[in-house]
Design brief:
mainly alpha, Glycosyltransferase, 0% strand
Length: 332
């Protein structure tokens, strides 16, 4: 009789476990955020690593070969999460070596200023000296992109300005004449609503451009208590949606990632940017799929490789460039 009772007790425990498991699986199928069922950053890193190619570099899942842009994104994100990049060799070449060996690719890319800025952020994130890469001084190359009025590269395009400023800040050049001039130039282009337009116009501001500009000017030394930053954050707040995410086009991972980085660069906690019970981090995590990728929207993948890399930075280093805001430098 005693054995029967014990057997019945364990049977009830087993059935309870099966029922609980079924409930959890059902919730996951219905779209429950992966933050509740696993480490979202670890899942995201696994997704990026699944796109590493045989030459040690990275290319998005739609690209058969590695390229300098995707490798720069992956290196910055993985370094921000503390990953040992030197241990990720494929056929004897790790991602850091790929970046060094393939810097010639930069000259073949459109908008070389922005691409070089992204590349230098990756180099510094990996622990390299951007002043000596294959005999090239990328700090001086970045400085050569500045016009006398502080503008960088293409006229009427602010993203290259922001990426070059952040790259120089990562190289400990935030006090340089070039960075100060660029920060002043960008501040003058702030719209009456407090945001920035991608083309530097007096209107047409958007939360993506506003976020990257905030990251840039703060990395360049702008005080987080300044009027420029205050107005920028006020504009971002006006673009937050009921689901906690950002964008006038409907909340999406691209805008969420940059907004989270800007909010944290300004010294604030994005999880406290509440709309009801929702916040930007919660919304961003809701866009992560079972394979770890982060989609643009729940039903639209977009450039998932880039959004996934940005999510890792947003949830670890927390802001851009992560190497000057407490992120990891990955020594060799």
């Amino acid at each position: 009789m005693f054995r029967v009772m014990i057997k019945m007790r364990y049977t009830r425990i087993f059935l309870s476990f099966v029922l609980l498991s079924a409930i959890l699986v059902n919730e996951s199928v219905q779209g429950e955020s992966l933050s509740h069922s696993g480490d979202p950053v670890a899942l995201a890193m696994d997704y990026l690593l699944s796109d590493q190619k045989e030459d040690g570099g990275f290319g998005s899942n739609s690209e058969p070969l590695s390229n300098i842009k995707d490798t720069s994104l992956a290196v910055t994100a993985l370094a921000a999460a503390g990953k040992n990049l030197s241990a990720l060799a494929m056929n004897g070449t790790d991602p850091i070596q790929y970046l060094v060996q393939n810097d010639g690719e930069l000259g073949n890319l459109s908008n070389v200023e922005a691409q070089t800025g992204r590349y230098v952020i990756a180099l510094v994130s990996a622990g390299l000296d951007a002043g000596d890469i294959n005999g090239k001084n990328y700090v001086q190359i970045l400085k050569s992109y500045f016009a006398p009025d502080g503008e960088v590269g293409k006229e009427n395009y602010l993203w290259d300005d922001a990426l070059v400023v952040m790259a120089l800040a990562a190289c400990n050049e935030s006090q340089s004449i070039e960075v100060k001039g660029a920060a002043d130039h960008l501040s003058r282009l702030q719209t009456a609503k407090g945001g920035w337009a991608w083309n530097g116009g007096a209107n047409g501001e958007d939360p993506d451009t506003t976020s990257i500009i905030l990251c840039a000017i703060i990395s360049g030394g702008e005080e987080t208590s300044s009027e420029v930053v205050r107005k920028g954050l006020q504009y971002l707040s006006s673009e937050q949606n009921d689901d906690g995410g950002f964008s006038s086009l409907g909340s999406n991972a691209a805008t969420d990632g940059w907004a989270i980085m800007a909010i944290q660069a300004a010294g604030q906690n994005p999880e406290e940017w509440k709309v009801g019970s929702e916040d930007p981090v919660r919304h961003l995590l809701s866009l992560q799929k079972e394979d770890g990728s982060v989609w643009w929207k729940s039903n639209s993948e977009g450039m998932s490789f880039e959004w996934t890399a940005n999510m890792i930075i947003a949830l670890t280093g927390g802001r851009m460039p992560p190497v000057i805001f407490g992120g990891h430098r990955n020594g060799r």
